Amino acid sequence: MAPSVMSDFSSSATARLLPFRYTVPIRAVQFQPSVSIPLTPLRSRSTLSRCCSSSAVAAVATNTDTFAKVIDGKLVSKQIKDEVAGEVASMKEAIGVVPGLAVILVGSRKDSQTYVRNKKKACEAVGIKSYEVNLPEDSTEEEVIKHILEFNNDPSVHGILVQLPLPRHMNEENILNAVNIEKDVDGFHPLNIGRLAMQGRDPLFVPCTPKGCMELLYRHGVEIKGKRAVVIGRSNIVGMPAALLLQKANATVSIVHSHTKNPEEVTRQADIVISAAGVANLVRGSWIKPGAVMIDVGINPVDDAESSRGYRLVGDVCYEEACTVASAITPVPGGVGPMTIAMLLSNTLESAKRIHNFK
Ligand SMILES: Nc1nc(=O)c2c([nH]1)NC[C@@H]1CN(c3ccc(C(=O)N[C@@H](CCC(=O)O)C(=O)O)cc3)C=[N+]21
């Protein structure tokens, strides 16, 4: 039997994905101490198959009594996409405006191409028009900025996304600064991030991945106010904005990073963990407070001869161990990843509504 899936989602329309006021207590589970677990991340295939193989997960998953609930990001993202599709349709009917998203991809990284293709598909599925520019790896910063400025001035474009990472010779800051903040659906412009960090100010857009994490917490009735939260990682696009959002939601927040002396001990204090470290199986069972809620942002490829791609994706959290300690957990894949795309669509719709003053 598969782990139980949390399904107490709100049916709220995209009423702009505000925090829900009600809470549904997450059932605490019995702590099963794990014995002498090394703190070093598990990287080798042999260790991985011992710790976090999918067959091990399936075997343990038959015991649903002591098992964390699975926070199904794929399901929630589907729900959000349906909500967005409904609003896109009514906007088109009412004022004849179709939201538009422009995506700029520089270079030919396979993973970036896949992400961009998935974003385009997701746009199509909800009725958002997508525009794509592909530039060669050796383009200049000026060429990229030229396209950004064109999209800034194009009234049919409501959101602009520059796929990251950019080629090494480009200055990311210069490029992201060129995006009109009114169309910055990624929320990466320093003005948007700055407003996110300030009391009493609100950004026009919140970065998609951390927003997706918060949305999963809200839609599963996880109480955040007054809780201890730990964010692992401090990147501009995930860790740092995630910590700011948790703080805005009145959690007491710590950030664990590569120079933290006692990451395990700090993480074990947390009622809510958002992990965005990019290290496969970094967070072991012993790092987790019994009953904690685990949001796993990591998407780490590990070799897997049995998979057709030759690899499979695992999170930062050792899923199989966490399942016996945490009260709820996001899987990888199927957790935060699909939410990132859903939030991008939601931000693009929000932008079109704001620009056209459509309520
Ligand atoms: N300007 C910019 N904005 C971004 O939002 C952005 C970016 N650059 N660069 C790369 C990262 C990564 N990212 C993901 C989006 C969806 C999944 C996703 O849907 N993953 C699925 C499937 C993964 C698979 O099977 O390949 C899952 O986790 O279930 C993952 C990762 C957006 N990013």
TrEMBL record:
Keywords: Hydrolase, Multifunctional enzyme, NADP, One-carbon metabolism, Oxidoreductase, Photorespiration. It comes from Musa balbisiana. Gene3D superfamilies: Leucine Dehydrogenase, chain A, domain 1, NAD(P)-binding Rossmann-like Domain. PROSITE patterns: THF_DHG_CYH_2. It catalyses: (6R)-5,10-methylene-5,6,7,8-tetrahydrofolate + NADP(+) = (6R)-5,10-methenyltetrahydrofolate + NADPH; (6R)-5,10-methenyltetrahydrofolate + H2O = (6R)-10-formyltetrahydrofolate + H(+). Coiled coil: none annotated. The keyword NADP applies. This is Uncharacterized protein. NCBIfam families: PRK14186.1.
